[in-house]
């Protein structure tokens, strides 16, 4: 079974999402961003270009392997 990790950083937080495909991981990560915005910034208008799906990186994770800088050691 494949596992993908999506991630991006802001000035204050690091966001991650996991899924069985790249798109699912990105969707989960982006959904977490939107949930964060609704929780920490209720009622505020969020710049839609601050974080977009294109800003989110994703890669496949191999379970049981060690990583350094997102590469298998």
Provide an overview of this structure:
Helix content is 26%, strand content 30%. It is built from 1 helix and 5 strands. The chain has a 3-stranded antiparallel sheet.
Shape: elongated
Helix-strand pattern, N to C? EEHEEE
User: Strand content of the residues, in percent?
Assistant: 25-35%
Task: Report the helical percentage.
Answer: 25-40%
- Low-pLDDT runs of 5+ residues are none
List the keywords.
two-stranded antiparallel sheet, 1 helix, 73 residues
What would a concise description of this structure say?
The chain is of the alpha+beta class and 73 residues long.
Layout of helices and strands:
Elements: E1 3-9, E2 14-19, H1 22-40, E3 57-61, E4 67-68, E5 71-72
Antiparallel strand pairs: 1-2, 1-3, 4-5
